[in-house]
Amino acid sequence: MALEELQKEYPKGIAVALTDFPKNKSEGWYDIQNKMVVINIGHPLCKKIETSRIALQYHYARVVAFVLVHHISTQKSMTVQEATELQTEFLIKMMDRL
């Protein structure tokens, strides 16, 4: 599933929710039931950069991209190179909207 296929599956975009779970080691995950990306704002990395708006926006975009690539990789086999390229493609698309 490439970016184009994901856009067809979610024509209105991907929902994103913020949650505060400091004891959870994950920066984010995909909530299958609600079809949304959840970003853990309690994660230590997020806490470190929360005072910088630009760094925080990039962090959110990076977590969303990572979670989507991970979700796609559970449905379609991909190499590390393909996953990295897809993540970069997601980030470029998202950064245009920040």
Identify the notable features of this structure and list them briefly.
98 residues, alpha+beta, Zincin-like, 3-stranded mixed sheet, 51% helix, 14% strand
Quick summary of this structure?
With 98 residues, the protein is an alpha+beta fold. 51% of the residues lie in helices and 14% in strands. The chain has a single domain, classed as Zincin-like (2-Layer Sandwich), CATH 3.30.2010.
Verbal overview:
With 98 residues, the protein is of the alpha+beta class. It has a three-stranded mixed sheet with strand order 1-3-2, covered by helices on one side. The longest helix is centred in the middle third of the chain and has 21 residues, at 53-73. It has helices spanning 3-9, 44-49, 53-73, 80-95; strands at 15-19, 28-31, 36-40. It has one domain (3-95): Zincin-like. It is globular. β2 (28-31) and β3 (36-40) form a beta hairpin. α3 crosses α4 (80-95). The chain is built from four helices and three strands.
Domain unit count: 1
| CATH classification, class level | Alpha Beta
Mean pLDDT: 87
**Helix-strand category:** alpha+beta
The number of distinct β-strands equals 3
Indicate the CATH topology.
Zincin-like
Q: What is the CA-CA span between the terminal residues?
A: 24 Å
Radius of gyration: 13 Å
Tell me the series of helices and strands, N- to C-terminal: HEEEHHH
